[in-house]
Amino acid sequence: MWGWGYIEADFIRYYNIDILDCYKNDSITWRRFLILIKGLPADSAFKEFIRDKKKRSFVEYDGL
Known about the structure:
The chain has helices spanning 4-15, 19-25, 30-38, 45-51, 53-56. It is mainly alpha-helical.
């Protein structure tokens, strides 16, 4: 999944949560996941990934 590694790393770093365990055990709601994503600090790996258009170019298409 696009950007998933950055999310995994940030959840471990900032929240001490192994997101894969949460997914496998169905112990995190979609709402909570989104809240935690939104709560990541500006210098998190995922937010840096989102800001860097070069890293995202393979999944975005501006031609439409």
